Amino acid sequence: MLLLFGVFAIRRVPNPSLLILALALAGSVAGCDRQKAGSEQAAQGQANVSAGQAKGVGAFEYMIDRSHKGEAAPQAAFSGPDDAAVSLAAFRGKPLLVNLWATWCAPCVAEMPTLDALAASSKDRMTVIAVAQDLQGAEVVDPWFQKAGLTALQPYLDPENGLLDAANSALPTSIYYDAEGREIWRVIGAIDWQGAEAKALLAEAKS
């Protein structure tokens, strides 16, 4: 079952202390729940709110979560721009920022131009990928990319929501891994990737 507060969907958590913290943060963090086939929503797992700060700047509202620091990147497979299966292990060797988003998620779409600018300016020192969680896959993601005018990001697809399941989070969620594939932090909600706080966060991993 989902607990809905404003625009942020918090999944029910079994630990009462986590639920209290979730309720405290829910009103200030913008996010989208996952899409379900047809007109319904899939509601599995919980949004991790056990650590971090809720912040908002204009249209960008987010929470920084460090409770997963040191965890290995999931092994779930998804599709690359060439339709070939790929996993996060293929990107090891330099820091990796993975953005989980969907075309129907307004905060996801709002932050995408700033994420694209980051991908263009940082390609020599880190990798940035945006992995769409749309259940319809390329049918809806490819047309969106054609209209968006992005210059650096490519359409990675995860219609089975394998990465979102592993993250146990809401959309958008961006996870930063070091060069060895260990999580450093995650941002739940939309952030300006050209802003000062995003730049400070990205400086935490060294290639």
**Cα-to-Cα separation, first versus last residue:** 41 Å
Which runs of at least 5 residues are low in confidence (pLDDT < 50)?
Answer: 1-30, 35-54
Side by side, the strands of the main sheet go: 3-4-11-10-7-8-9
Number of strands: 11
Please trace the helix and strand order, writing H or E for each element.
EEHEEEEEHEHEHEEH
Largest sheet: 7 strands, mixed
Strand content: 15-25%
Structural class based on helices, strands and sheet pairing: alpha+beta
Overall, the morphology is globular
Radius of gyration: 16 Å
Q: Count of helical segments?
A: 5
Helical content class: 10-25%
Mean pLDDT: 79
Overview of this protein structure:
This protein has 207 residues and is α+β, with helices and mostly antiparallel strands. Helices cover 25% and strands 24% of the residues. The chain is built from 5 helices and 11 strands; from the N terminus they run ββαβββββαβαβαββα. The strands form 3 sheets. Strands 3-4-11-10-7-8-9 form a 7-stranded mixed sheet. A two-stranded antiparallel ribbon has the order 1-2. It is globular and about 35 Å long. The chain starts with a strand and ends in a 5-residue tail after the last helix. The model is unreliable at 1-30 and 35-54 (pLDDT under 50).
